Amino acid sequence: MDNALIIEKSIFIVAIFAITMVMAMYSTWAERKVAAFLQDRVGPNRAGWGGLLQPLADGMKLFAKEEFEPNTPNRFLFFVGPAIAMSTALMTSAVIPWGDKLEMFGRTVVLQATDIDVSLLYIFGVVSVGVYGIMIGGWASNNKFSLMGAVRAASQMVSYEVAMGLSIIALIIMTGTLSLKEISLQQQGMNWNVFYQPVGFLIFLICAFAETNRTPFDLAECESELIGGYHTEYSSMKMGFYLFAEYANMFISSAILAILYFGGYNYPGMSWAVENWGVNIANVIGIIVLFIKICGFIFFYMWIRWTIPRFRYDQLMNLGWKILIPLSIINIVITGICILAFK
């Protein structure tokens, strides 16, 4: 690998991390605006025009707040928990194709940090490590409510990762690849996978809510039962890392949903745009289209949060083990039969 390519990839990775952080920050602003709209109130409107500087004010507030540490024998793990949660939330962005390519400075810039053949396995591997951030934080807090939240998070994520993985198997059978780039290329035009795998998409969407600890699956941090759950004992930016990790996960999971089932950066007439407007303009439009799809899913996350009440814990487990897993297995069988019959 030449030095120019290393520099190019490094700049791209830093840019993606920065975009992920900005999206996470402004998702907090959008969350409050959506909640205000659904509840017929104003929302943040003091810091900047329309409250646009509110995320920066919140960040400064978290940095300035007093650091509090509980009386715990696991001080090191108490610090490691939020670090793991934040790191895994950012690492998944490395294999996401944000667009096709751009011609810049005499070079072809691929809009993906790295294209590996097993992108989906990489994402599942990183996401499965993310649960340790919550478990370690809850256990090291030396607090019964935090520990209970960590146990809930672990059981919830393990349960729904099984169904999520099974829903992806049907998609892999259909596409024949684990590469997100290849899956995107197969959906040119309106040949979106959601039309062929509607049940798999629905299962994956529900599991994504559980993986990101979003309502109605926020049993790990529900304030009505566990004060604040696994991050009860955290303050300042350690708590901020947990909060930002949730919104970063929401952004990344929305990107994965858009790529797997809604064509990613592809849009109707993209090949025509490449021929008539050039590669750069067509692919910049593709990037914009992908972010529109991502913002649509983020809005859906927020809409659900302020519409549906959270489940009881037994309902959460029943849905995962007794409904979603059998349904995903049936979907795999039907997909295999259809491919054998119509291929």
What level of helicity do the residues show?
55-70%
What gap, in angstroms, lies between the N and C termini? 40 Å
Strand percentage: under 5%
Strand order of the largest sheet: 1-2
Question: Overall 3D geometry?
Answer: globular
Keywords:
two-stranded antiparallel sheet, single chain, mainly alpha, about 350 residues
Short description:
By secondary structure, the chain is mainly alpha-helical. It has helices spanning 3-38, 54-64, 75-91, 119-140, 144-175, 180-185, 198-211, 223-226, 236-261, 270-277, 279-305, 313-342, and strands at 101-104, 107-110.
Describe the 3D structure.
The chain has helices spanning 3-38, 54-64, 75-91, 119-140, 144-175, 180-185, 198-211, 223-226, 236-261, 270-277, 279-305, 313-342; strands at 101-104, 107-110. The chain is mainly α and 343 residues long. A two-stranded antiparallel sheet has the order 1-2. α1 packs across α9 and α7 (198-211) runs antiparallel to α12. The longest helix is centred in the first third of the chain and has 36 residues, at 3-38.
